[in-house]
Design brief:
The complex is a heterodimer of chains A (about 110) and B (about 140). Chain A contains 4 helices and 4 strands. In chain A, helix 2 packs antiparallel against helix 3 and helix 2 packs across helix 4. In chain B, helix 4 packs antiparallel against helix 6. Chain B is mostly helical. Chain B folds into 2 domains: about 50 residues, no CATH class; about 70 residues, no CATH class. Chain B is built from 6 helices and 2 strands, in the order E-H-H-E-H-H-H-H. Helix content of chain B is about 65%, strand content about 5%. Chains A and B meet through strand 1, strand 2, strand 3, strand 4 and helix 2 of A and strand 1, helix 1, helix 2, strand 2 and helix 3 of B.
């Protein structure tokens, strides 16, 4: 926990809480629009939403290996866009070593469900 | 419309495909799908940046202990399993010199390694379920 706090300078944001591809709706009427649904909003570290998006996209990739390049490019686009649009541009979620624990536990929780 | 507490709330009917369906669909070009993911990243960044809080509340992490204990009961080699996963992701997240996440995925053999670990977890989980059902 201390490492988590230090790595983010104690900064908390309003997390979506369940940020994964199934909870992102794409409306394709005219200009494409994305909506986030089913949030469990809480104040937490911003990385939690990012890491869940990654850990919930990896299983899609494993089920559809033929889409590997496409999915990796999509995740790259998502993460690059997120980092470039954060107002506090010193923010770098990849400094979170404990992100690995979160993603690992989340992958296990998928098997558990 | 006002809800039961008198608070005015707004409802919006949202119709469309989930992002997962979009990934698997062939109705959009690769560029269009990439553009959507870019938009998702931008929108999440805007949300996180604009709704920041000074609240110092870490209670949301306190329930992790229960989950870890539960997994320890379910996976006899949980510590080793977790260690293996952590090693992979540590290597991934600590590769700060890489320019893009995609480069990290490719150059560290991320996908290959996670495939191996995933298949081990899956096999282990299926074996465990068989043992539970037999007993």
């Amino acid at each position: 926990m201390a490492k988590f706090k230090d790595s983010n300078n104690g900064q908390l944001v309003l997390c979506h809480g369940d940020f994964k591809p199934e909870n992102i709706i794409v409306q394709n009427t005219g200009q494409p629009r994305v909506c986030f649904i089913d949030n469990d909003a809480f104040h937490g570290l911003p990385g939690l939403d990012l890491f869940k998006m990654v850990s919930r996209t990896v299983p899609i990739l494993l089920k559809h290996p033929e889409l590997k390049d496409r999915i990796v490019e999509c995740l790259n686009s998502f993460l690059t866009s997120y980092l470039s649009h954060r107002k506090d541009n010193h923010f770098n979620p990849f400094n979170f070593r404990l992100a690995s624990v979160f993603i690992a536990l989340d992958l296990l929780s998928i098997l558990d469900s | 419309m006002p809800d039961s507490t008198g608070t005015v709330v707004f409802y919006e009917l949202i119709e469309g495909s989930t992002l997962e369906e979009v990934i698997l669909s062939s109705s959009l070009t690769s560029e269009e799908v990439l553009s959507l993911f870019f938009k998702v990243g931008q929108q999440l960044a805007t949300w996180h940046s604009s709704l920041g809080s000074s609240v110092k509340d870490y209670d949301c992490f306190t329930n992790k202990t229960d989950r870890i204990e539960a997994y320890k009961r379910k996976f006899p080699n949980f510590e080793r399993l977790l260690d293996a996963l952590i090693r992979i992701f540590n290597k991934w997240v600590s590769t700060e010199s890489q320019a893009t996440p995609a480069a990290i995925f490719h150059e560290n053999g991320f996908i290959k390694k996670i495939n191996i670990i995933w298949s081990k977890i899956d096999q282990h989980w299926r074996n465990l379920k068989t043992v539970i059902m037999v007993n």
